[in-house]
Amino acid sequence: MLRRTVLAAAGLLVAGTAAAEDKPIKIALIYGKTGPLEPYARQTEAGFMLGLEYATKGTMMIDGRKIEVILKDDQLKPDMGKAALEQAYADDKVDIAVGTTGSPVTLAMLPVAEEYKKILIVEPAVADQITGDKWNRYIFRTARNSSQDALAAAATLKDPDISIATLAQDNAFGKDGIASLKEALTAVGSKAKVVHEEYTPAQTTDFTAAGQRLFDSLKDKPGRKVIAVVWAGAHPLPKLMDLKPERYGIEIAPGGNILPVMAGWKQFPGLEGAIYYYWGFPKNPVNDWLVSEYKKKNNGAPPDFFVAGGMSAAMAVVQAIQKAKSTDTEKLIAAMEGMEFDTPKGKMTFRKEDHQALQAMYQWRMKKDPPDNYDLLELVREIPASEMNLPIKNKR
Fold first, then answer.
1. Alpha helices in 32-77 (DSSP H)
2. Sheet with 357-358, edge to edge strand ranges
3. Domain region containing 100
4. Leucine-binding protein domain: which residues (predicted)?
5. Tell me: the pLDDT tens digits for 222-272?
6. What is the CATH classification number for the domain harbouring 371?
7. pTM of this prediction?
8. How far apart are CA 357 and CA 321, in angstroms?
9. Cis bond upstream, residue 124 (ω within 30)
């Protein structure tokens, strides 16, 4: 009788294990598909699905389990992003979540991951607070943060005699970006002085008054004079250029942006900045595949900024589950801390202290007479992660 009981129990255990192995791996992708950053969201989704395809060699399975992606639109509203993540964890029973597009929405989502003790991979939001003072141990980020943007920008602004005025959106993204730029200038040993900070609403379309204040703050300064811009969405660069900053010897440093935005800068040859990703810069098998496959699916258009980010997040998910041999949260955290993984930009590494992905950035120059709206930039140099002394800003 005892032998039969043991055998029956063993049979149940085998059946239970088989059932667990057959259960799909559920991933929630949360993004701001409704609203002004909808192009970013579409790119993230496209890149994420391509990343799963590449990382699973087309099977869309991890260790014999099918992948199920659940899409949720937060409409760029913090309360909706929070609710979407709660629903994903509680109702959809997802194993892991990825998102979201806007930094304010992402910040609202962070406590939800901690409450449910589930992983949230942040892509593409960049505010430093996400892996800074608002961070918790369930948060990993494949997206670059504001400090990485700033350190890359600062590496291009190291002249001995330079004055900088800044223009940014009046939100967490913009304020984080400028604070990080000021820290980064010190970190890279720049002698630049930030003489004025200008913040305007994200929906601003008339930059006349803001531009004049920026010009007035710089026009009488000696040496090189630069307006550094931190902006998401429709970019103010063309409107600032319409105000003719060159009459005061003022340059604009616009950072990087998505291709449709940068195509509007073709009339400014020689313009320089730093960027997270441009399709023609990285030279590695992952990026080669991404460019080729994306062009096939998009009438010859190359992948953009956030396509690469979405793919990076997907590749991190697959490698983490494979390394952990599980979707258990604690096993995933143990696997992901310090994990090096492939992306279209080359290798990234999740730093153990704050789970921020360390990664390269790029210094670019606008080509003279670009042939089309895609072949726009020439590489000045790759800025390796090792050159950017990224501060740890969490207090845990």
1. 38-55
2. 340-343, 346-350, 357-358
3. 2-144+283-358
4. 24-368
5. 999 999 998 887 889 999 999 999 999 999 989 888 999 999 999 899 898
6. 3.40.50.2300
7. 0.87
8. 17
9. yes
